[in-house]
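Deliverable D5.2: sample structural annotation.
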Amino acid sequence: MSRRLRVLCCFEDGTIRDPATHLPVPPGALAGDLCGGRRFTAYERATGADCTYRVLAQVLAAWAGLGMCPAQHVLTGRSGWSRQ
């Protein structure tokens, strides 16, 4: 059974939302979808730019339990990772 591609929207405050439901999607929940074989794509709300790999990095960090989080949201012009 194939599952539809999930489209996600990244907001300026760092939240990831499902535009179909307008609900936030925590990285841990998205990890469960990925383990179940569901694929996703993500875009920046402000610019429409693809941010799928950034979201995937957040999901992998959450799934691995590294306690990593974005130090600053990409749209602010600063990027990097820091330990919580």
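Annotation notes: Residues 72 and 79 are 6 Å apart (CA to CA). Strands lie at 6-10, 16-18, 23-24, 40-44, 68-70, 81-83.
The annotation will be released with the project's public dataset once the embargo ends.
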